[in-house]
Amino acid sequence: MLVVNRFRVPEPEAAVFREDLVRAHEVLAAQKGYVAGVVGRNVDDPELWTLATRWEHVGAYRRALSTYDAKLTAVPILSRALDEPSAYELVEPGAGLNEAVPRRFGPTETG
User: Fold this and answer.
1) Among 63, 85, 90, 107, which is most buried by a count of CB atoms within 10 Å?
2) Where are the alpha helices (DSSP H) in the chain?
3) What InterPro entries does the record point to (predicted)?
4) Does some domain include residue 94?
5) Residue 96 lies in a domain
6) Which residues of 56-88 are buried (b: 16+ CB within 10 A; e: fewer)?
C-alpha cells in the first residue's frame, strides 16, 4: 500500500515544517508494517511538499497512526495535508485491482 500526503507550506514556514515532517516520517518508519518512505519538495513549486510511504497493508498504516508516538508527532503534521485521497493500492503486472464499489464498515442491516 502506498500513502501520498501532499502539503502546501508558505515559504516562511518551510524550515520548521521540514523538521516536523522529517520527525513524523522517522516515527512512522519505526512502526510495524512500514516498508519505505521519502520526504519531498516540488522542484517547480517550492511551497508544495510530500510525504510518501509504503506499508505492508492498509491495516498496518492505520495501526501505525494510532500509536502514542504517532499521535504526538505524525498526526499533527499529517492533519495539515491537502484534503485529498492519500491511500493507493500498488498496481503490479498481472495482479487484480480493488473493486470500485462503496465500502461498508461495521455491521449492516439486513432485511
Assistant:
1) 63
2) 14-29, 58-65, 68-78
3) ABM_dom, Dimeric_a/b-barrel
4) no
5) no
6) eeeeebeebeebeebeebbeebbeebeeeebee
